[in-house]
Amino acid sequence: MNNHTTGDTFLLWGFSSFPDLQRLLFVVIFFSHVTILAANVLIMVAIKLSHNLHTPMYFFLCGLSFSETCTTMVIIPRMLADLLSGTKMISLPECATQMFFFFGLGGNNCFILAAMSYDRYTAIHNPLNYHMLMTRKICFQQIMASFAVGILVSLTIVCTVFNLSFCDSKTIQHFFCDISPVVLLACDYTFFHEMVIFVLCAFVLVGSFILIMVSYVFIVSVVVKMPSAKGRYKAFSTCSSHLTVVCIHYGFACSVYLKPRNSASFREDMLMAVTYTVLTPLLNPIVYSLRNREMQTALWKVMGSANRLILRK
């Protein structure tokens, strides 16, 4: 008997364990999603319209905001629909597509954060030649390289997962097609498959994190040699928002994707997944807005212009 799932559908069990909370979860996640979209769009528009923000740091931030917005669009609309739906079914091609884009964009986010750390190092270490070293072309190439690596890693993961044969159970113990709950349904999932997926996840998470830490080691080595306390404070303050986002992003992602798998932890993983699919994209624009005076000024200008436009109508 052939158990391969071509043409089959899965059941996204998701929040079905909490039937009394589904409407409340819908309201909370819906408004969080709207806030994520509004905040990230505001950041992108502010960077586009403010000439003083046309620098490499804000170019990368614009790329990160766009990637975060796309990541949430892959997961949250489907999650909201399933919270109100009685079926919660997803076809195998839809499941594979969701996994592909989620991990592709997630990998892209990781390497954009690494590029941002290198940008901060270049700005602090070589401020006089900064704009020659970090041209718009180089920044664009780094964004494209981040996207390409994310897509290639994601494609390899998806091919590994969906070339498996699935057994009779088709219930995914999650609200989206994440790796662990999907491979748990496979009949021929082996240690080799587990190692391939682990190495790929580690390459993205640990690899990009090492690049970030190397940049910060060099940043610290430069900053401690600065003669004035004011100069040291200014240098560290330019990195504070990025470092905060890095801690939030990698803390949640590593706690899910780099720990041993077992079915008993799926409820815990699902709750953690809500954090990095909803809360993290919500916190990122807040962190960059609250800790950055230039961004605050640009955002107020954009909102002021929007208000005047609405009042005229």
Automatic annotation (TrEMBL):
Annotated localization: Cell membrane
Segments crossing the lipid bilayer: 24-46, 58-80, 100-118, 139-166, 195-224, 236-258, 270-290
Pfam families found in the cross-reference section: 7tm_4 (PF13853)
Alphabetic keyword roster: Cell membrane, Membrane, Olfaction, Sensory transduction, Transducer, Transmembrane, Transmembrane helix
PROSITE patterns in UniProt: G_PROTEIN_RECEP_F1_2
CDD domains per UniProt: 7tmA_OR10A-like
Membrane topology listed for this record: Multi-pass membrane protein
InterPro entries membership: GPCR_Rhodpsn (IPR000276), GPCR_Rhodpsn_7TM (IPR017452), Olfact_rcpt (IPR000725)
Residue ranges constituting the G-protein coupled receptors family 1 profile domain according to the UniProt record: 39-288
Matching PANTHER family: OLFACTORY RECEPTOR
Record's protein name: Olfactory receptor 10T2-like
Lineage: Eukaryota, Metazoa, Chordata, Craniata, Vertebrata
